Amino acid sequence: MLRLHGRTPAKPFYVALGSSFAAGLGLGPRDPASPYISMRSVNGYPQILARRLNVPSFADMTSSGSTLRHVLHGGQMGLGPQLDALDPETRLITLTAGGNDIRFVGDLTAAAFSNRKDLMGRMIRIFWNGIKDMEARDFPSMAANLEATLNEARRRSPNAQIVVATYPRILPDVGVCPSLGLTEAQAATMRQAERRLAEVTRSVVSQSDAILVDMALLSEGRDACASQPWVNGARPVKGAAFHPTLAGAEATAGAIMNVIEPKLSAS
Q1: Average pLDDT of 204-230?
Q2: Less CB within 10 Å around the terminal CB: N or C of the chain?
Q3: For residue 73, is it within any domain?
Q4: For residue 65, which of 110, 18, 26, 30 has the smallest C-alpha distance?
């Protein structure tokens, strides 16, 4: 039997969907309503946005490790579909997902750890098969599930504004830096996956009535190698590896506020 994602209001005004980049992994105390596996923090961009908007009711369904299939159908460690929180009276939906569908951050993390000289690095090198090439990343299924998710969200909440935020940029346009913990070759391969993830998301959203907030574009110059990054590198002092910093979560919330209808901003 599938479980709920935590306490949710019956008719939420705002519903947040997505993976750890939305859940705010490592950005503060765990939301008391979050299942342990989801690791939602009180500082993910949806929670920041809900506070800024002062929404009357809010359901944060985001879950670290989730794929678009989990958003749509459930099945992540017994959790139900994230979409189940949607209601005809929902007025705002945000979504950031797709990276886990193509094993993006997983490969980044494994690659960085494999370069370490400690026991962890040796273990990764023994059991990890290496970075997947582009053909092994299932972008067609990711695109199909994103389209299906947007269609189902619209069916369930016909009057909602649906906002899709792409993942902020982790890798610089060229080269590497110590905080990445990657080789030049590893970074070059993962850069292809990062760009393709953003391209596929843009393409699917452009064929829907959802609003795109292109954090992959807006975060140019704010990658993990920047002096003021919106994402962490491999071994951050605070937060999770290769995930948004608090500044990145706040920037995403602000970018969404800039595109939603004024009547929501004034709520």
Answers
A1: 98
A2: N
A3: yes
A4: 18
